[in-house]
Design a protein that fits this description.
It is an enzyme of class 2 (transferase). GO terms for molecular function: ubiquitin protein ligase activity; zinc ion binding. InterPro entries: Znf_RING (IPR001841), Znf_RING/FYVE/PHD (IPR013083). It catalyses: S-ubiquitinyl-[E2 ubiquitin-conjugating enzyme]-L-cysteine + [acceptor protein]-L-lysine = [E2 ubiquitin-conjugating enzyme]-L-cysteine + N(6)-ubiquitinyl-[acceptor protein]-L-lysine. The protein is mainly alpha-helical. It has 2 domains: about 20-50, no CATH class; about 50-125, Herpes Virus-1. It has 6 helices and 3 strands. A 3-stranded antiparallel beta sheet has the order 1-2-3. A hairpin with a 5-residue loop joins strand 2 (about 85-90) and strand 3 (about 95). Helix 2 packs parallel to helix 6 (about 125-150). The mean pLDDT is about 80.
């Protein structure tokens, strides 16, 4: 079992490296469950709060090239695929023109159709996302436990 620090990808500071106090405050608010304060802090940092960061370049480049089916169209530009068009398929199996999806993923990290997220290069965003996933798992486990006890 991995410890807390290696699970979240933390590492010791290198020689002469200065800690990011904003990130420390962000982690403290996240870990203590104060999401209202967390949201206020993110807005104060000027990151907009509600929009997700761009998808990581490695994740975008790893999207496989696929052949579109006849009479399919791209959900971003709404044009039909032609024979020369290059399509990329997201992990959720949705297909898009290569240029369309690359432009989209420079703005946000999610599928334009189903909102399934790709990884980002933003460590704070990824840490918050992991925290929310763990919290959702815990809530599902508690619900399952409750149902098994009282049904």
């Amino acid at each position: 079992m991995a410890d807390y620090f290696s699970e979240l990808g933390f590492r010791p500071l290198a020689e002469g490296e200065v800690p990011d106090h904003g990130a420390h405050l962000l982690r403290l608010l996240r870990d203590s469950g104060n999401f209202d304060l967390l949201q206020m802090f993110v807005e104060l940092r000027g990151e907009g709060g509600s929009s997700a960061p761009a998808a990581s370049k490695a994740a975008v480049q790893a999207l496989p090239l696929v052949q579109p089916l006849e009479n399919e169209n791209c959900a971003v530009c709404l044009k039909n695929y032609d024979e020369e068009s290059q399509c990329r398929m997201m992990p959720c199996k949705h297909k898009f023109h290569q240029e369309c999806i690359f432009t989209w993923l420079k703005q946000t990290n999610s599928c334009p159709i189903c909102r399934k997220e790709l990884p980002t290069d933003d460590l704070d965003y990824e840490a918050i996302r992991k925290h929310k996933e763990r919290e959702s798992e815990r809530n599902q486990q508690l619900e399952s436990l409750h149902n098994s006890m009282f049904s």
